[in-house]
Design a protein that fits this description.
Helices cover 32% and strands 21% of the residues. It has three domains: 77 residues, Nucleic acid-binding proteins (OB fold (Dihydrolipoamide Acetyltransferase, E2P), Beta Barrel), CATH 2.40.50.140; 154 residues, Rossmann fold (3-Layer(aba) Sandwich), CATH 3.40.50.300; 70 residues, Orthogonal Bundle (Ribonucleotide Reductase Protein R1, domain 1), CATH 1.10.40.50. By secondary structure, the chain is of the alpha/beta class. The N terminus is likely disordered. The strands form three sheets. A six-stranded mixed β-sheet has the order 10-9-8-11-13-12, sandwiched between helices. Strands 1-2-3-5-4 form a five-stranded mixed beta barrel. It has a two-stranded antiparallel sheet with strand order 6-7. It is flat and about 70 Å long. The longest helix has 45 residues. The N and C termini lie far apart (50 Å).
Length: 349
């Protein structure tokens, strides 16, 4: 149904189309034009299809930047908006708890292969870096840490970040003079999403990698040194060689959402030590025979890292329990509505 290899001028070729993606479309029973969401909005979204760029409506689907979709194109020449008929199952989704606190999942980017955690060296918060790495690992994509603004600090930041990012590459980059950009490019592939706080240099890095100013940038505020939100949408840009970039707005909050696998992947050192604790449900606090606490006492493990791990686990468990309670409440409410409707039906017969 869908071609495995598209000509070089094919619009989707610049946005990650591959034989593997073609197979996913071929498995769908829905008829329509293949496309990818490059910017998701509330009312309408922007997509790139095999026929070119197109504004689309969701038609009941919750769209996210990076989604692969099947689109029904406008039926008449006067209509310029297409309709999304189906969304392919997502892979490599960046998820967090909704910032509204409503115990809901928020997907920041879909079908990603590499997550670039952008960290400004002069304002490193180790706990926040670990939290972002959990987000990255939980997506199933490969994390890479881009350490920016290293010229603004004399602290051994690189070594500290490497220590808390096992399994991930850490690259020092400077978008202004281009140093580290080739090394960073060698470590990314497929669909690449940039995450980090405002002012970390995400948009500047995206501009440098793309070779042109596609995102607005601004200096940090002088008063408190915090970044300004210059990126307001999650938007996808072609990088060449089949790679695409997704820049995201600065993340003030990164809440856990069913991130048990991500926590385990981000803290393999603690996870390995925990296998040797006397109790399988050891909380690494006051239990006897705790291998994790023993490693801290012998100086083999940072106590701060253990506390960060404990905090993320507690938060993840709380969010999961709250989400389960919310789901049970919704199911109970739906059952009551259905029951009242059935009683009304038989009463009014």
């Amino acid at each position: 149904m869908y071609p495995e290899v598209l000509p070089g001028i094919e619009p989707l070729a610049e946005y990650g189309w591959s034989p593997q993606v073609a197979e996913r479309f071929a498995d769908s029973d829905v008829q329509g034009t293949p496309g990818r969401i490059v910017r998701a909005g509330r009312g309408s979204s922007e997509a790139v299809t095999s026929a070119g760029p197109l504004t689309v409506r969701a038609a009941g689907h919750h769209l996210c930047t990076g989604d692969w979709v099947i689109v029904r194109e406008p039926a008449t020449d006067g209509d310029t908006i297409g309709t999304v008929c189906a969304v392919l199952p997502r892979t490599g989704a960046i998820r967090r708890a909704d910032a509204s606190g409503r115990s809901e999942e928020q997907v920041l980017a879909a079908n990603v292969d590499t997550v670039v955690v952008t960290v400004a060296a002069d304002t490193v918060d180790l706990g926040r870096v670990e939290r972002l790495l959990v987000l990255a690992w939980d997506s199933g994509a490969q994390p890479v840490v881009a350490l920016t603004k290293v010229d603004l600090t004399t602290e051994p930041v690189f070594e500290r970040v490497v220590a808390l990012a096992p399994g991930a590459s850490v690259v020092e980059v400077c978008a202004l003079d281009g140093s580290g950009l080739s090394e960073l490019r060698d470590r990314i592939h497929g669909t690449v999403v940039f995450v980090g706080v405002s002012g970390a240099g995400k948009s500047t890095l995206v501009n440098a990698l793309c070779g042109r100013d596609i995102q607005a940038t601004a200096p940090v505020r002088q008063g408190d040194g915090k970044g300004r939100h210059t990126t307001t949408d999650r938007e996808m840009f072609p990088l060449g060689d089949g790679m695409t970039l997704i820049d995201t707005p600065g993340l003030r909050g990164v809440g856990m959402w069913d991130a048990g696998a991500g926590i385990a992947a981000a803290f393999p050192d603690i996870d390995d030590l925990a296998q040797h604790c006397r109790f399988t449900d050891c909380a690494h606090e006051s239990e006897p025979g705790c291998a994790v606490r023993s490693a801290v006492e012998h100086g083999d493990l940072d106590a701060r890292r253990v506390e960060s791990h404990r905090k993320l686990q507690r938060e993840n468990q709380w969010v999961t329990a709250r989400a389960d309670a919310r789901l049970r409440h919704e199911r109970t409410r739906e059952a009551k509505v259905l029951s009242r409707a059935i009683r009304a039906y038989y009463r009014d017969r």
